[in-house]
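Look over this today:
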Amino acid sequence: MSLDISNVLKDWPYEPGQLNVRLIVGEDDEPKIQMRIDLGVLQMETEGRPDGLRPEGHESLLELQEANLDGHIEEHGSEEGFSLDAEDCRLLREEAVQYYHRYISLLVLEDYEGVIRDTSRNLRLLDFCAKHAEREEDRNILEQFRPYLIMMRARAMASQALDANEAKAAMLAIDDGLEQIRAHFTEIGRAEGVDASNEARLLNAMREALAPKLPVSQKDELRQRLDQAISQENYELAAILRDELKLMRE
């Protein structure tokens, strides 16, 4: 069998500025995600580690290191003494990039559950490195990506809720994402910069677009009906509606 993929690239041309992603069935009859890049195609598994490897039998290096931590605690009674050296952190960062490629691909494919899974997993990796890395630079280097991960997860959660016609749940997901981004900027001493961040701007834009889709509250609906009754000079109905509003206030 020829190893040349020229025909694949010819049949699926690269489009600059576009994120070209597709879902295919592999020779093992399992689904695969493909991303077209300028020099070829990235292919990823839909679950587990994107490259399909299982480090020492674990789903990923993160799970392996978490298992190592569990073993350390079991042996020593606490987390004290457990750490990640520079090489451990480098390998974890490289693994996080694989998951990044997959979750942006899954967003294009509208697999929001997969985006939530992979962004949550990478946020867990950030927390793990921030807590256990030996070197300060390894503890901090990934923190710049935290707002983006929070935004992508909130965006996927909101999109998933909208697919289920749950506009209120979508708004809650967006507000929770904004609050987490605000907390991050406050923690790093840059609280004043949160509103200028691209991540907060995107979520706020989603929020503004979503607001008209929210259900009208019962009180607002009564007020609208009251205004309509008065405009139609239906004073008997208006009196009843006023009484209902008064009872709600009480």
